[in-house]
User: What shape does this take?
Amino acid sequence: MLLIPCPFCGARDETEFAYGGEAGIERPADPEAATDEAWTDYLCFHDNPKGPHRELWFHRDGCRRWLEVERDTYTHELGAVRLSRP
Amino acid sequence: MADETADIRRSALAGLDLGSRAGGAGGVLLAEGAAREGFVLRGPAGDAAFGQAVEAALGAALPLEPGEAGGIGADALLIRLGPDEWRLIAPLSDDGRLAARLASALGSGPGALVNVSSATTVVAVAGERAADLLATGTGIDLDPAAFSPGRAVRTRIGNAQALVHRKAEDAFDLYVPRSYARSFWEWLEERGREFGAAVAL
Assistant: This one.
């Protein structure tokens, strides 16, 4: 079980959060003009590393903010946590 | 405003027949709290005009610390729940007057106020083992040093999201979603056996 240090609420249990996948994925600015390859990459091809990972968590039962969390997917060690859109 | 809150006068726990469960004496008392008005207030915490509008309308400063619950008069509260979110709680007898004042003070400036009175049911948990009972179902630290009387936070308890207001060291008001109220109550009673929980009317 993770104890995620929410920058607003403080340390909270993982069960209060919803996982949101890899952080920092940019939506193509103009979807109509994006190539099929760029759009498919945006939608489907995300990193799945064994080790450090920057990912999104939604604090559903707390401040209801999206957080960007650094987590090691192998050791579960947490690094920096910040509000995704302060 | 009165019409929007009319349905919360009918208890979400009516089907449980709490009267037949009342009695016993133990370390925890469970009771249904009086229905209250609730309003979600959203707005920019750092905006001076927003803060002044709230203060002018409610006669109390906008609480800025996470979990801070500012009292408004004797019975109403304004709780900081998120970076741009607060909850205004007032007794039904206020009949929407505080909220109407706040809405008119916000005017066309930044900020929004939404009536969520029908969304929650209040469950009161009190007694010397109250914190021990809640601790079996939540991850927050209930030690008074970490969560002091007068504060309020939103978290998860058992199977439901709950806004937890610690009224005193051993007295909590839990605002749980109305549709979860019945199963949440049954969860509390079940967990409460270990602590000799009794039902109060």
Summary: The mean pLDDT of chain A is 95. The longest strand of chain A covers residues 52-58. Chain A touches chain B at residues 3, 8-13, 15-16, 60-65, 83, 86 (CB under 8 Å). The longest helix of chain A spans residues 36-44.
